[in-house]
Design brief:
heterodimer, A: alpha/beta, 2 domains, 5 strands, B: alpha/beta, 8-stranded parallel β-barrel, 4-stranded antiparallel beta sheet, 14 strands
């Protein structure tokens, strides 16, 4: 099968949310000697991009977006061992966390799927993450962006705490802070000194892409 | 002058209501001078209590708390003849010490791990469902009705409807687990769903015969999580089945829908639900109340006041609520809940009461201007 057909199949497997075919096609791609990075960027990632567009247009819902992410993960498990020695080019690096006291995960998870699909490296710190852990992760990983999530009004103040801790650590100007979650308003984001409040996952990821594009254009 | 109970029931029955009903849920309410003052100025109080008791046959339950695993961590183990399942939860300080399972900060225990972690767990949970019996137990409702009298309404509470039970309780949405299970193990998911549907029928009948006027599914519907396809396939038939039981006995049916509802609004309009509870307008929800009222012409809306406005303080509450009142003139079919999510500070509670206590029906621009002037 020609390379373009296999790449096309990988793309379609993602769009069609096919757990079985993605594994077969990923194996076929590796057996055919297709560069693993190419299989990802010109195959599966293109599929994720289409899924993201369908999500944005309302044709696909959250469930499809998440399942597409899971399908891609299955494909990646086949391709990953072949990536040894390959150096992937990321658009940027994002540290993601639900702030301390907040165990909600789904919004953060959607953002992560979309960020990965857009070529970001994502470091997920999980949920209920203490401020200190976030600061240490920023110091260690030097991300371009931190994404903070809170779904409860009682946990929102932890976002302010993180931003203040970044300032105290002298690294606030080294990283963009984007906040999100149902109760988080633009006014609140401005008040606590965040760079942006994501109205939804798609919009938040667009903002991250915009920041990285501006950075590379500087 | 109508009592709070008369007002809220009159609104539900399509009769004349003197002023916009507003109330606090007991589970989110402080007790004290501000709460007393607000109640003296017209704020009702509502209580949600189950109409049934639950018996698990052939299922042993054990709760383990090992402080060395971390503060507030509890493991619930359910053992059956075909295997066991467990879930871990994290309880903040205060759980069990005041409002039911809520902490001092009014946060429910977090499920750290879910009952269904892998496909093998479905059969065990199905066994539990198949061996669950519901029996009428009306004492909690009768007791609360006696305590509240004309000050409030007692609602018979039902658990999450079957698919919501799977989605947000037993399987959970962390890392999208429910959707992935629904895509990969559809047969298992639907098999368990069908068991729950069958098991729940007796509960609807019990609720229909309870002394409560209103029965509520605490469903926490959010259109982003429960998309229209899922809602149509797994939720609407359940609501219809339950509504049939309830309406036959003259009860009204409410469903707690506190998320983003815009994508579901037309489907919701097609249901036999009488009360859409906890509707959150922007900035938390995505459906303005006037839009919801015009879409759901045969339903009453109990609006959950958005917590994100409370975080901005009493002045923001004042501006938001005056704007809200203007948007819903003449104010029919609407009741305001001070919060359906968390505690409200005394200052915010007093500010919202100061506005709503003067919201006589039908609302007019002139009257709202007068409320504004009075607060200037």
């Amino acid at each position: 099968m020609p390379t373009t057909e296999i790449l096309d199949a990988l793309k379609n497997d993602i769009v069609n949310l096919d757990f079985d075919l993605i594994v077969k096609d990923a194996k076929r791609a590796m057996d055919a000697g297709i560069n693993p990075l190419r299989a990802i960027t010109e195959g599966m990632a293109v599929g994720m991009q289409i899924v993201g567009e369908k999500f944005e247009s309302g044709e696909y819902f959250l469930s499809e977006l998440i399942v597409a992410g899971a399908v891609m993960k299955e494909g990646m498990e086949v391709i990953n061992p072949h990536l040894a020695g390959e150096r992937s080019q990321h658009l940027g690096k994002v540290v993601m966390a639900a702030v301390e006291g907040d165990h909600h995960d789904i919004g953060k998870h959607i953002v992560m799927i979309l960020l990965i699909a857009r070529g970001f490296e994502v470091i997920d710190l999980g949920t209920d993450v203490p401020t200190e852990t976030i600061i240490n992760a920023v110091i260690k990983n030097t991300p371009n962006v931190i994404g903070l999530s809170a779904l409860l009004t009682v946990t929102m103040p932890k976002m302010r705490e993180v931003i203040e801790a970044l300032t105290k650590a002298g690294i606030r100007d080294k990283v963009k802070v984007i906040v999100g979650g149902t109760p988080v308003t633009s006014e609140y984001a401005k008040d606590i000194g965040a760079d942006h409040r994501a109205a939804n996952a798609v919009e938040g990821v667009k903002k991250c892409v915009e920041w990285m594009t501006q950075k590379s254009g500087e | 002058m109508q009592t709070f109970r008369e007002k809220i029931l009159a609104m539900l029955n399509g009769e004349i209501v003197e002023s916009l009903p507003f109330f606090h849920w007991w589970r989110h309410s402080q007790i004290g001078w501000a709460e007393r003052e607000c109640r003296n100025r017209g704020m009702g109080i509502c209580w949600s209590r189950p109409p049934h008791s639950t018996i698990l046959h052939n299922v042993k339950q054990k709760v383990i708390h090992d402080p060395s695993k971390g503060p507030g961590l509890y493991r619930m183990i359910y053992s059956t003849p075909i295997g066991f399942v467990y879930q871990d939860e994290k309880r903040e300080p205060g759980v069990g010490q005041w409002h039911g399972p809520r902490s001092w900060r009014d946060v429910s225990p977090w499920q750290i791990t879910r009952l269904i972690k892998s496909v093998e767990d479905y059969d065990v949970v199905k066994y539990i469902v198949d061996h669950t019996e519901y029996q009428p137990y009306y004492f909690p409702i009768e007791q609360a009705k006696e305590w509240l009298g004309e000050d409030g309404l007692v609602i018979a509470s039902l658990p999450h409807s079957p698919m919501q039970m799977l989605m947000i309780d037993w399987v959970g949405s962390e890392e999208g687990r429910f959707y992935i299970h629904h895509a990969r193990y559809r047969e298992k998911v639907e098999d368990l769903y069908e068991s729950l549907v069958k098991s729940y029928s007796s509960m609807y009948e019990i609720a229909a015969h309870s002394p409560a006027d209103v029965v509520m599914f605490g469903d926490n519907i959010d259109g982003v999580l429960v998309n229209p396809r899922l809602f149509k396939q797994y939720f609407m038939p359940i609501y219809e089945e339950c509504a049939d039981f309830l309406h036959e006995q003259g009860k009204l049916m409410a469903v707690h829908m506190d998320g983003r509802l815009n994508v579901l609004k037309d489907l919701i309009a097609q249901t036999s639900i009488d009360i859409i509870d906890a509707v959150h307008p922007p900035p938390m929800g995505d459906l303005a109340i006037n839009n919801a009222l015009s879409t759901w012409k045969k339903k009453v809306i109990w609006m959950g006041y958005p917590g994100s406005v409370y975080t901005l303080g009493p002045q923001a509450v004042k501006e938001h609520s005056l704007q809200l009142l203007r948007s819903v003139i003449p104010g029919n079919r609407l009741c305001i809940e001070m919060s359906t999510e968390n505690l409200v500070s005394n200052e915010n509670l007093l500010m919202l009461t100061a506005i709503l206590e003067n919201a006589k029906l039908p609302l007019t621009q002139r009257q709202i201007n007068q409320i504004k002037q009075r607060l200037a």
